Amino acid sequence: MTLNDLFxxxxxxxxxRKKIVLRCCMAAGCMSSNSKGVKEQLEKAVIDAxxxxxxxxxxxxxxxxxxxxPLVQADPQEALFVKVTEKNAPSILTAIKGGxxxxxxxxxxxxxxxxxxxxxxxxxxxxxxxxxxxYITQDGYQALHDVLTEMTPKDVVxxxxxxxxxxxxxxxxxxxIKWGTVAKSPGAKKYVICNADEGDPGAFMDxxxxxxxxxxxxxxxxxxxxxxxxxxxxxxxxxxxxxAIARLQTAIKQAKIMGLLGAGIFETxxxxxxxxxxxxxxxxxxxxxxxMMSVEGKRGTPRPRPPFPAESGLxxxxxxxxxxxxxxxVPAIYRNGAEWFANIGTEKSKGxxxxxxxxxxxxxxxxxxxxxxxxxxxxxxMGGGAPDGGQIKAVQxxxxxxxxxxxxHLDTPVDYESLGKLGSIMGxxxxxxxxxxxxxxxxxxxxxxxxxxxxxxxxxxxxxGTVQMHNLLEKILQRKATARDLALLEELCDMVRNTSLCxxxxxxxxxxxxxxxxxxxxxEALLQPDAHGPRSTQTETTTK
Amino acid sequence: MERLKIATVWLGGCAGCHMSxxxxxxxxxxxxxxxxxxxxxxxxxxxxxxxxxxxLIEGAVCNEDNLELIHKIRARTKVLVSxxxxxxxxxxxxxxxxxxxxxxxxxxxxxxxxxxxxxxVKPKEDGxxxxxxxxxxxxxxxxxxxxxxxxxxxxxDRIKALMVQVLEGKTPKLEGTQLKFG
Amino acid sequence: MAAKTLTIDGKQISAEEGASVLQAASEAGITIPTLCHLxxxxxxxxxxxxxxxxxxxxxxLPACTTKVAEGMEVSTDSERLRKYRRMTxxxxxxxxxxxxxxxxxxxxxxLQTLAYSLGMDHVRYDYNFPKWGVDTTHRLFGMDHNRxxxxxxxxxTCWHVEGAGTxxxxxRGSKSKIxxxxxxxxxxxxxxxxxxxCVMSCxxxxxxxxxxxVGESERDRTKLxxxxxxREKKQWNA
Lengths: 544, 182, 238
Description:
The structure holds three protein chains of three kinds.
Chain A: H1 3-16, E1 20-25, H2 28-31, H3 35-48, E2 55-60, E3 72-75, E4 80-81, H4 91-96, E5 105-106, H5 111-114, H6 132-137, H7 142-150, H8 153-163, H9 175-184, E6 191-196, H10 205-212, H11 214-228, E7 232-238, H12 242-257, E8 273-279, H13 288-295, E9 319-323, H14 324-336, H15 338-342, E10 352-359, E11 365-370, H16 375-382, E12 392-397, E13 403-406, H17 416-421, E14 430-435, H18 440-454, H19 460-477, H20 483-499, H21 503-507, H22 510-524
Parallel strand pairs in A: 1-2, 6-7, 6-9, 7-8, 10-14
Antiparallel strand pairs in A: 1-3, 3-4, 4-5, 10-11, 12-13, 12-14
Helix pairs in contact in A: 7-11, 7-14, 8-9, 8-11, 10-12, 11-14, 18-19, 18-22, 19-20, 20-22
Chain B: E1 4-10, H1 16-22, H2 27-34, E2 35-39, E3 52-58, E4 61-63, H3 64-76, E5 77-83, H4 85-89, H5 103-114, E6 132-137, E7 147-149, H6 156-167
Parallel strand pairs in B: 1-2, 1-3, 3-5, 5-7
Antiparallel strand pairs in B: 4-6
Chain C: E1 3-8, E2 11-16, H1 21-27, E3 51-54, E4 61-62, E5 73-75, H2 79-95, H3 110-117, E6 134-135, E7 141-144, H4 153-162, E8 167-170, E9 177-180, H5 197-201, E10 207-209, H6 222-233
Parallel strand pairs in C: 1-5
Antiparallel strand pairs in C: 1-2, 3-4, 3-5, 6-7, 7-10, 8-9
């Protein structure tokens, strides 16, 4: 494979392109409402009308407005058809020729779409995720070529540092610094791991990226591997994502056949292989040290850091671990330059962030916005506010490790620091909108139950502390708790956060702490008077 | 100087803590001079009085009588001391809690029917035999308790250490092995 | 071997490079409480009792897995640490069914000893009272899950001292459980060599010799150290 070969493939693809393309969403969301049937009916209708030479029906990845699926979009008309059924699908053909259709259309120029800036999702809903040629047509793998042939690993790391990209898994550690550390760590064998163990309730960004554009992740991993000096990569993806796994397998196979993975990539000495490791449903395996244990075939439990994976990771070798979205950003950064990327976003949070918008909001789905976009823009303009004229009460970010941001703070810009100041976190990108009907103590209890069930059981504060915090939250909800119980809960939150071994336990109290911070009255309204509590006379007892 | 009004009660426990109390030997004579024992299994008083200064509570809260009494004690007493492991941790009486929600029925069945040699029948006499609670609880899970005296039973010297401090009007401080459970 | 100078609780000490803070402290006569650490097997930092404060580092660090460093200023016994330790113990006592009065390890139990030495006189949380069984299928030993604190000392000892790999952890969170082989009754285990090292390693009364009654379970942990030293350093320091 050479650069010319890439151009050749692109040219062939463009030459063969038909006048009209009907892009049909084949990501898990739309497929669950039968987009597969819709696509088949469209294909049949095209043949029936004898338009095979004019119209291409292309299965693509996520087209973002998930609540309206199955989605079909027509090029070049831009018309976006929503809630398409097998029955009304054929009438789309009439519509694109100017005729009438009973298929509902959505406005592709509504704020939900126009406020987005796609870097990670640029190919999502455009390319056919099961054809590498489709990715190459979007200039895919050119960045890898340029990196391998024109840059030294040191340059690659420097570019990443300059871009200002920070880890999209939640913590926001500067990616370039991480790459630099792994690159400097001595060791003949190094690994690159892609963390695709997305587990936060309500989060589906990484799944969509893998289902919609798997090659961007592979290309990102290959560039990272070159930068740090690794020759083996693993993608750790949860078993609950069968479609993502299937598409990754296809993508890896195609990349290997084309020589874009394997030995001597782009006729350089660089070789890199990627294998998939499938998780068995443990949330804690999203924690990097637990993830590596699991990849090694051991019980997935975290271990204390240091040593950090960059020094001693998988099988004791220096290991680079990044999240799916982080890797998906990589090819674009090398295609367009570090400055281009650094110009997007805020001073400390560069680029864009993908969010899975869910909950009590009109438009649910995937959005990608520049860092620094105010929450209000996302929730009110893009999301369309609460359905049925409801009032938005809070926005939850960061899943079980994050917090609830109350409506009065909706003008907060979305970046790592601003969300942190409000006691929440950026997290991996789950964003759950809550309206007035949501009881915040219930929310806290829900997330605590999640952490309690998902605690690995290794360290005591997380294993036993989440159980007791959950007990106390239950007791409050059952109106059996007193002010003393609330004090016990707050004390435990502090203790579990400061003493747990890994991020799961350290952040498990966050939803409780943040709802206590902004909605304390809801807790206090449930408390009972302490009839048998300490007596006021107790201090001067026995001194008669 | 008015004597301190002291009470001791026996909830769900084996009376071992009270036996250990009697092991205070000659200290009991000292004590008798300084306190008034207003209520105790070893004193013939039917009703728990008002205005008690300190009450040592042996045993866990196991049945409805225990529950009623402990609330009365809390209302009428300045300082409660959980006296021994059953009061502090619910200890052996609480082992039935592990059997689930119908544990009270299963232990009665086991003790009085399955393993009975004569006259297998579950004890039931309204107003005389108090029904067992669904769950055995340590005292402080039901009412606020000021001080804790662990041990099964707490040895006499430990009881003495606590009593001396209480009599001196101090907040009793026990440490090290004086806090040993079991 | 290079030496590192550090301060622990205001006391200047020097320790070998590569030593853990726990080791260094212990050599200097400073006791840091721990339940999952056991001489002779590697550390896992799981019990969180040995957490220490290190000047300049905002997070608390486990003394057992933190290496000594030049100029390090360690505090092992602050009011905050003592409070966290007491809470950790309360959580453990509330988690399973620890009834000291009827336990084989009464008087020789590390959990019990830590509870009184840290001044834990009662547990403020609701006891869970879970239903756990006792595995008495083994010819010589028994396993009472009610008393297990999941320190996994037995697992590490079985794998890394004896090398049999019989013991393991199954399940997740508070439902985690020490198992034999693939969760078979211990007595049916084909890999167990009946060496009894797991029983020696247990800090509580969870693992016991059959036939021992209340308070009889005294354990000689120096034997494990002896074996490991003999194997690794070829020194038989009886």
